[in-house]
Predict the 3D structure of the following.
Amino acid sequence: MAAVNLSVNGQAKTVDADPDSPLLYALTEDFLLNGPKFGCGLAQCGSCTVLLDGEPVRSCTLPCSEAVGHEVTSIEGLGTVDQPHPLQQAFIDEQAVQCGYCLSGIMLYGKTFIDSNPNATEAEILRSLNGLICRCHTHVRMAKALMRYAEGRRA
Amino acid sequence: MSVRFTKPVAAAMTADAREALEKAGLSRRDFFQTAGALIVSFSAAGKLTGQTATVDPPVNRVDSWVAITADNQVKGYAGKCEFGQGFKTVQYQLFAEELGVAIESVQLTICDTAQCPDQGVSSGSQGHPTQFGPSALRQALATAREALLGMAAQRLGAASGDLAVENGEVFVKADPSKRVAYGALIGGKRFDLTINPNAVPKHPSEYTVLGTSVARYDIPEKATGQYEFIQNVRVPGMLHGKVVRPPAIGAKVVSVDEASVAGLPGNVKVVVKNDFVGVVADKEWQALQAAQELKVTWSTPAALPAQAGFYEYMRRQPTRDSYTVRTDDADTVMNGAARTVAATYLHPYQMHGSLASSCSVADIQGGSGANAKGTIWSATQGVYPQRDSVARVLEIPNTNLRVIYVEGSGCYGINGADTVSFDAALLSQKVGKPVRVQYTRADEMVAAENYGPAYVVDMKAGLDASGNIAAWSYEAWTLAKGGRPNANNPGNIVTGALAGFATAPIVPAAGATPTTFNNGGNSASPYGAGIVGGRAQGTGNIRAERVLVRTIQSPFFTGPLRSPARLQNTFANDSFIDEVAAAVRADPVEYRLRHLSDPRMKDVLTGAAEAYGWDARPSPKPGNARTGVVRGRGIAVVLYEGDNGYCGLVAEVEVDQTTGAVTVLRLVASQDSGPVSNPDGIRNQMEGGALQGMSRAMREEVRWNDQNVMSQDWRSYPVFQFGMPIPKVECVVIDRPDAEHMGAGECTITIAAAAIANAIFDATGARIREVPFTPARVLAALRART
């Protein structure tokens, strides 16, 4: 165990953790976040996704020591129930959720790609989600929500 | 329609909420025993002791379902879970609609043994028919509303018939200034009424809240990461546990070397009970390390039956037989047929494969016996059956246990949610502190699931001279082991069995001619008349029918997986009707219509076909080349469970005849589940079900070797994922305000495999009879074309 300095959603905290332990455990046990979730622990499904300096990473396999000196953003860091981020509002407007356990991966990979490529086609946006799993298979609505967000970015 | 919902007291305890709970003087249970008590919306698990007589909220009492506070807020209680299908939102709508209150004034608590009526298990698409049925939520609310109107009539000096309700206030229609709020009539007091079977609920044609697309209450919190899943439950002083499962199915513990983890950080403790082995540590990562390091010596069990040749193995085992239909003339008509068609369909074991590995938190205090007590936070589909089965495992009176439902990821049936709750309870009992257990991916897929069982189905049809089906024979072999746990059967799931509880074996037995028609497994096809006891009860008109299900002992635990049995059977039944149609050169829709009698079944069939733009002609599609890429379309229908949701589905596919790759391009579904409670909600279920059904048909199969299941992650159990082409999905929702409410969440998934197989045949002339439709199997089917 060691003191690990992390900054998550703008909040700095020193946590007592094994530097090799995955970042996800610090996020859930020390920062008490609900957004990033343990799905597989193998970087296969994407439900643990957070942004590291704006780039999506799988927190279930990223050692927490590698997040030191970087800003971590989870879906909690985008917006709130009262003031949702336009991406979150798009998912609410399209009712693009069944259980919602997968949302961190779908939203953060989609956001990163669309923010850099606001004119991307639906096919291109969906390719940026390659490998992510939604086991409720809400793919149709999620695609619509991402397109709605992209339209807003273009406007 | 977007509304803000009132949150109930957090089911999962934050530190503050837990403290409040522990300090609570009166419980909701006390409310049922103490006249005139104040309403307290949560109970004190800490208060429950062996000496305190407690009662479960009686299902037939209005107070078990609804209470109204003095300030006109509605506290609702119900026993049907939300697991992403949107049914809690529908229950909110039902409260608002039936009582005539604003949906925002309703605070709904579901599935907590300390507060909610025992509604068994939330499964089988029974939520909708049950809550709108004659003895559950809607009837309780109708009784409450009639009682409130009666009180108001007295208070206002008017006849009940002259009154109306708006936003929780009763007023005189002729003089709306004369009004009284519900809270002023009943606030804080009990109704003290038994549910009145004669109370008249609102007719669906009068609905203003139900029947509209009220936005899901949970989506804003889910989209912003605020929603508390079972995986997010945090109890003060909580430790973390992990399980250590046998490396081979049937292996027993020989010895556990506790010294092997003695030097690890996190105050590691080892817990062993028979063949249940687990570890507990301060932090989750430490528990994971300890579970990996713990040295356990296991016995070497007998080898599993080989997966190669398993379907033939199934036919050779002793069977427990059950007939769904067995008419006296089944054999004679078949033998006298002008022509017969026969085919065999194969369906593998599949898994729920929930995206979250399952999780539970348990706080068991006082060991075992009459003075022990505890709380379990669980994503179980049945809090009461789980409470009673855990009580057996822990040897604690069931009334000393409280099970609180907290949503996990989509479960689609009995995933690991029950088993992991047993794990957490066993570990907590041993260490005397709250313990959270979340599985690894392999724990979930290999050693927690009750898989959906494999099927072998032999189909045969006897045709008359005009090509119509006169005799229908279905004979299936499937497997079972365990199932949902209850007080009598803790050994129905993995942990119960490991902890020493027996799993009832399949006892071979002959089948008898049935006396009642029960097509809950959809073994009987929609085209049969379903003649049992002299009465035709099916949706079709084939009178000579033999439908026989043979069950054998499964090497793996089995249990309900979204559309259990119905999905596998419908793959066989609705592929086969398509084969027969092709054999007589008939259009697949027209040929089905010929054999259907139920008008609602006909409507979903033609509804899907029309929405698709069906071109009537026999399959395969004329003019398609036998090489290269070709397209085709197929259709399938079902009446889910024989009485619980009509559905038709057209699939359009593209087949690459060089590689065997199949791409589903378009899915058009038509569904009739009676009155539509939430149009957008039912579409969400239809869309997700269609795609999950496609995933299961195209990709999913549990694999094993001679020792254990090898499908242990998303590489070895691939499902439909992002990056693959998403079909266009279209939904036709048929609203039937005058019909009974039916299930909605398992219809499209039931028919996806048959619709896709039929489309592959239409495109290529190759019939694929084994799920999943891998490129290798499609190529084999293409080579087998005549």
Residues 310-350+453-783 of chain B form a domain with the Aldehyde Oxidoreductase; domain 4 fold (CATH 3.30.365.10). The first strand of chain B starts at residue 66 and ends at 68. Chain B has 20 helices and 26 strands. The radius of gyration of chain B is 28 Å.
